[in-house]
Amino acid sequence: MLELRKGPPASTVLDALKALEEKWKRPVLIALTGGIAEDSLQCLLVDGHLPTFITAYLKTAQYNHAFYCLSQNSTVTKTMLAGKGLAGFVSIIEDAPLAMLNEWFKDVKLGLVILDSNVDPADALAEYKAVENRIEEGGIVIIDDVDPDSKVTKKGSLIVPYLHETKRGYQFDNGMLKVFF
What we know:
This protein is α/β, with parallel strands linked by helices. 39% of the residues lie in helices and 22% in strands.
């Protein structure tokens, strides 16, 4: 039996997915940039296992969601999910996440997007801009590692001013930035 103790980032993502299920009463198209960087307890405790938490939830979810994990290096993600019997609940696409967002999802509307592949503020903003016009009305984009009080993480330093400029609603939640559409 798979036992996972979801941390705050995983809770934020799963709560958002459950809210969309409740609101839409149908499957959600989900995209996550980034994967599992390493198979370590430290990585698990911090938040580095979002694909594991999401697929574990999807295994028992009421709806048959489509979940895509976009990662430049997916070896650890594939191995860990297969070892836990969760590989069948995700499509893993290995390439540069920004390129995949621009190519794979150019003609579809996404319900939930989690941007977790890059800590560089300019790259994070580019990923956000790649999906902002591809989100369903009522959908959510979650950007990981955005903490307004952090002296270390500056990932949101360009995204937050951009959200003000575009008058997009957002909320900080457990070190993540949730953007509402």
